[in-house]
Amino acid sequence: MDTIRPFEKKIYLSSPTMHGDELKYIQEAFDTNWMSTVGENINVTEREMAEKIGVKNAVALSSGTAALHLAIRLAGEKLYGMPRAGHGSLEGHKVFASDTTFSATVNPICYEGGEPIFIDMERETWNMDPAALEKAFEVYPDVRLVVVAHLYGTPGKIEEIGKICNAHNALLIEDAAESLGATYKGKQTGTFGDYSVISFNGNKIITGSTGGMLLTNDTEAAHKARKWSTQSREDAPWYQHEEIGYNYRMSNVVAGVVRGQIPYLAEHIAQKKAIYYRYKEGLQDLPVTMNPFDETCSEPNYWLSCMLIDTDAMAGHVRGERDELWKHEPGKSSPAEILEAIKNLNAEGRPIWKPMHMQPFYRNHAFVTATGNGRGRSNAYIRENEGFDVGMDIFARGLCLPSDNKMTAEEQDIIIKVIRGCFE
Ligand SMILES: *Cc1c(COP(=O)(O)O)cnc(C)c1O
User: Fold this and answer.
1) What digits encode the pLDDT tens for the residues 2-45?
2) Are residue 318 and residue 208 in the same domain, yes or no?
3) Domain that holds residue 337
4) SS3 sequence, 364-410?
5) Of all protein residues, whose CA lies closest to atom 14 belonging to ligand 1?
6) Ligand 1 nearest-atom number relative to CA 211
7) CATH number, domain at 269?
């Protein structure tokens, strides 16, 4: 093989793409001196996002994680009442959560004193498996809250999950941080949960450099979240506090960046979609598949393109807690080998998000698969009664490919060529 030279400019997994309007709105905030958590950018951004997504209320917050925390607090208080000072609203309560996701989906459950129970993923959309969720309700019928994420911009089986939640009288929180603009049966992700969350983190499909939003049709809940996010000040002449507060409001400067990005969401999605299909085409005769979605009812935002190596095309590799070993075998490859080849090209890939049930911090939590008896433990060293663990399998064989929307077709072709080389 002729040697391929590394890119001079690094190609990222997914980096911010600015267009210029963002600066105009930042300047406006500066010129009018609304350099705080109040101002026109916040008002307009909340209104525009709510309209675009199709929810009554959008509350602008400092991050997607903050939005998840307030969503979980709203759910906890609705279910179990206002907690005493020093206690979480979910204390003593179990919560079902996506297993393969970014940790920010799950951590806020713990901020509120809840105990996450992890629900395995399915193979059709790489999201929470409704069959595993059903099983979880059989084993833990008292659970009243489900937190579900749409991974990599692909809508999960959200209608089915919503029905299961209704049948068990449980609230649904939708983490649409990665899936802004994706639709399921023509409806945007972020409209299915009692409370839903989006993120404007720098790596997301549009960004504010940071920031996030809580989405809900419950206007009273939106008012409550807005109040909590500004330290829970009551309407009184002095600082009057009747419940716990947070400093979670979005800055008017950050909102200026988001405001400038909103008109480009569709363009970013189109670019990401082209990247996904270029990979699909370029890798089609290899023993691999792309991250799947249900073409009959969903349209992803294609935030990250991922690939999965066929089981019988996996070359030898072993993973420890923080490191891994791999070897090349003709006609086969491994995520580690491909990620190293991509890195040597000065591009950025990443392993599939490591499932929560495999994380040392969450190892003692219950983990429910579709085929197990529902009483599996997360502990990787006590793997009994668990059934087949889809999340672990996808983590072992999958990887996220460079998916930056500023990558050119020519650059992507070089990445594809290098991936093909790994299977020679
Ligand atoms: C990015 C992300 C978050 C957190 O959003 P931040 O704005 O970074 O706090 C939450 N959940 C998922 C699935 C994410 O990818």
Assistant:
1) 678 999 999 999 999 999 999 999 999 999 999 999 999 999 99
2) no
3) 265-421
4) CCEEECCCCCCCEECCCCCCCCCCCCHHHHHHHHEEECCCCCCCCHH
5) 177
6) 7
7) 3.90.1150.10
